[in-house]
Amino acid sequence: MEIKKIQGAIEAILFSSGDPVSIDRIADALELDKPTVLKIVKNLMDEFNREEAGIRIVQLDEQFQMCSNPQYTPFVRRILDMRRNTPLSQASMEVLAIVAYNQPVTKAFIEQIRGVDCSGVLGSLTAKGLIEERGRLELPGRPLLYGTTPSFLRCLNVSSLSELPPLEKTQQPEEEENDLKNVSAG
Amino acid sequence: MEIKKIQGAIEAILFSSGDPVSIDRIADALELDKPTVLKIVKNLMDEFNREEAGIRIVQLDEQFQMCSNPQYTPFVRRILDMRRNTPLSQASMEVLAIVAYNQPVTKAFIEQIRGVDCSGVLGSLTAKGLIEERGRLELPGRPLLYGTTPSFLRCLNVSSLSELPPLEKTQQPEEEENDLKNVSAG
Amino acid sequence: MEKLSYKLPVFEGPLDLLLYLIRKNKLDICDIQISELLDQYMEQINAMKEEDMDVASEFLEMAARLVYMKTVSLLPKHEEGEKLRQELSGQLLEYQECKRIAELMAERLNYDIFVREAAEIEFDQTYRRHHTPMEIYNAYYMAVGHGKRFIPPSPEVFSNIVTHKIVSVSSRIIHVLRRLYRTNEVRYKELFADKTDKSDLIATFLAVLELVKGKRVQINGEKGNATVKLICGGVKKWRLKKYKAQ
């Protein structure tokens, strides 16, 4: 393999791994001897670690890792921050609404209504602090139950769930269903 | 900010974000105008995307993302100890093709073309991040609509849907076909 | 979950099979000879007979459609038959194109490019935008639709399969003893009066047996008139000491 390709391969490895990678493992993967790899990595570091570079390669003992140049952290933070503040997707809104009106509910219940998997959405709503886990249902598999948080009320600017617009009669889970839900949740 | 620093910041942003980032967001974060940012990103792409490079910058519609150069995939996989992604099944490819060329599209429409149920396939394509929900169609039952994601473009190595292989002339969506889309979606 | 039943030898569905037959027999997709196609199709269906019923149903649906088309084509008026044939041709052309594109895309699809996870910067991810309650209400209707069609079956439907309440015998022993401390003697039937659940009934019955075995109670009479009597009468002290906590 020519030098340029080996460099490229190491770049790709460090980029994709995220975690620090030891020189031994790189040597193994490329089927090269350790001193050669070490020399190429060092060259690569010289190429990368210019003062203004966005990506740096750092050495940690015998390991190497790619990371962003700390001087740009404020910008990175802004970008990631903007991502966090994007409005809820429609899928998120729907899941939130189902949780709000039926809590505590299981993932299976929500998926049955929406007809599609919603693990990702539940995760992001939890991270955003709009819903939270509410124990488990005493059924096989002990599924998690979800309910809305005080943050959710703040987000809607209401002081209690009772201020949500009431559902039309036909949309309300039936009495018996509620009873059962409570019984089985106990 | 000097050019070199802006480049570095964009590098750092793309590296740290992981996901595709839109030119608007970058412009916002750097407090620069969009054309300037676009020009710098394009320069950066020229710098990065040499044949032997380990890291590439790809354009996906209006977004940009850093990813590894596929030619080094075997090495990266050795390091990450990952098995090869199983190639998508024929069913998945067909569904993906229908979604790509007709998006946003309902499950009913896809099933009409393929003549078989495709709930499972839609679920797995969504889980793989190749397609995503795109709201609902305002028809009875409010069926979900699906479209392709930026990841889909990346995996196909194109930067926009317009680069997909063209449909054969006779198959270009005709009036009646469009009608059918709406009817069958019901 | 992806239905495994789709792993039929070669065909993704009835349309796939039809395209295969058309190609194999060098038929013209735009001018299908229905009776010829139907015979071949049925041949294949018979060959696949041992396959999963679920798959077969989709293939059978197409068989029925072909049979119908054949019937209609025998009528003196040809308009409907012609219309059905064009419809099928159109569908086949469309599916053929879909397959072609899928193949092209499969060649180009590289599902093995690596991207990074977002950098782990500690953020307070709390959602800070605001919405109105009406948005939540509307989203609910979006998800549920207006009919009851989409409301999931009540948990009751599953209760037989998934819930089994376990009632401990010891809790029923306490229950029986409590009843007896008040009255010293109680009709056997009454012990079961407050419960209808099967596991409650069984646990109560076992509790009585345990108490008989432990010589704490005695059963007199038979059938409906049987009574259960506490043996060490005047057990007020028991109640106070041992079972107070319960």
Automatic annotation (TrEMBL), chains A, B:
One GO cellular component term: cytoplasm
Cellular compartments annotated: Cytoplasm
Predominant location: cytoplasm
Domain of life the protein comes from: Bacteria
Chain intervals for the UniProt region annotation (Disordered): 164-186
Keyword Cell cycle: yes
Pfam families reported in the protein's UniProt record: SMC_ScpB (PF04079)
The entry's keywords: Cell cycle, Cell division, Chromosome partition, Cytoplasm
Biological process per Gene Ontology, one example term: cell division
Subunit structure and binding partners: Homodimer. Homodimerization may be required to stabilize the binding of ScpA to the Smc head domains. Component of a cohesin-like complex composed of ScpA, ScpB and the Smc homodimer, in which ScpA and ScpB bind to the head domain of Smc. The presence of the three proteins is required for the association of the complex with DNA.
Family the entry assigns: Belongs to the ScpB family.
Function according to Swiss-Prot or TrEMBL: Participates in chromosomal partition during cell division. May act via the formation of a condensin-like complex containing Smc and ScpA that pull DNA away from mid-cell into both cell halves.
Protein name, UniProt field: Segregation and condensation protein B
Organism annotation: Caproiciproducens galactitolivorans
Automatic annotation (TrEMBL), chain C:
Key words, A-Z: Chromosome partition
Superkingdom of the source species: Bacteria
Keyword rRNA-binding on entry: no
One GO biological process term: chromosome segregation
Keyword Acetylation: no
Family matches, as InterPro entries: ScpA
Protein name per the record: Segregation and condensation protein A
Native species: Caproiciproducens galactitolivorans
